[in-house]
Design a protein that fits this description.
- There is one protein chain.
- With about 500 residues, the chain is an alpha/beta fold.
- It is about 40% helix and about 15% strand.
- It contains 17 helices and 20 strands.
- Strands 10-13-14-9-8-15-16 form a seven-stranded mixed β-sheet, sandwiched between helices. Strands 5-4-3-6-7-18 form a six-stranded mixed β-sheet, sandwiched between helices. It has a three-stranded antiparallel β-sheet with strand order 1-2-20.
- α6 links the parallel β4 and β5.
Length: about 500
Amino acid sequence: MGSVKKEMAVFDSEAASEMVKELRVAFGSGKTRSYEWRLSQLKSLLKMAEDREQDIVQALRSDLSKPELESSIYEVSMLKGACTLAIKKLKHWMMPEKVKTSITSFPSSAEIVPEPLGVVLVISPWNYPLLLSLDPIIGAIAAGNAVVLKPSEIAPATSSLLAKLVGEYMDNSLIRVVEGAVAETTALLEQKWDKICYTGNGRTGRIVMAAAAKHLTPVLLELGGKCPAVVDLSINLQVATRRIIAGKWACNNGQTCVAVDYILTTKDYAPKLVDSLKHELESFYGKNPLESKDLSRIVNSNHFARLTKLLDEDKVSGKIIHGGERDKANLKIAPTILLDVPRDSLIMNEEIFGPLLPIFTVDKIEDSFDVINSGAKPLAAYLFTNNKRLKEQFVTTISAGGMIVNDTVIHLAVDTLPFGGVQESGMGSYHGKFSFDAFTHKKAVLYRGFAGDAPVRYPPYTKGKLTLMKALMSGSIFGVICALIGWSKN
């Protein structure tokens, strides 16, 4: 009996073009503009997260050996929270905003009407392959757009699951998933979109932006960078240390865009900080962290080799003061601390995105601000201090996508704060209402009747008309009255 091999359809530029055409026709029907459609899709997304949580946890375990707590809380629960907020606030977000008008357009009324952009593309990363795929889509759906999701092929189990679940739970006439790698992404980027949201590294971000520029397509780029943590003295060191660990190794083993990338502290305080980090790391992950079930593995062999290269650089390898153990077969690297690595080393100039944590020392804690400002603007910056003046100086002096004083990463869970980068760490922002705004055009609408038509705006132009028009444009009622009766304000 012969076997029949099922051939996979090739997704090339022609297939991408045809798909976008279909989505534009569906979007053009006006279906997505209704409150009912948006609400139904958000509820379906929430139901998907509730029904299939264990499938999601298993996929994340397959892709990253991600602990169940991290998968359930940092991916599924955060997704549910974003969905629940959008469902609760959707009607309010969709309402036009009444705004004041000026004497220039009197009599009139005005409003800002939110309208969907159209057909949008979301390209998501591998490190939080569920949350960072669907969180932007919540905003896109709430805003009334048709959406195509391109999940990362580096997290294949989650990518496959997303394609399956979106097919089962969502309206596939307007919401699609395209799986694949570089060829499929390239085919998608050749199309004209109404917005592209990309989360990932700066190198690919530049490719996305260049492709978007050909069609004058706006982009939302969530990139990354080297997120610093400045540690002052006279703090609760144990709490600070635990929060640094939570924002480094307890977040996908450092494979997080807002993870602490390096620490800045004074030469005198560094030994205390190092001892505290060692003690807390052992209490969290045991004496042999490579065997801990609470640490994610490195995503693949390429990233394992990249991190190994950072550690094995001649000027860095002798600076390891804790950890450094590796298990190549299982793609695991123990939490590793390095002290006083040279500023010109690879590890201090590339985003680490892994379980390596360099500590850079300065003479005075204020000097750390100069170190941060000498590099690219990070996606996040953290400060641990009880010094009010230092807090104010940090917020004023350091430019970053976001910052936290006396904690790490939890600003992502605050839906009233925008999440986004600045300059090389990204552009645009989302989360909460900011997600809705990111995929919305704010349309300015002015309403007038036919009464009160002023001949002053029409030719032939005269000195009197000029005087009155200047008064109207200045918004001065007194000036308008003077002009009408022929008085000079002077």
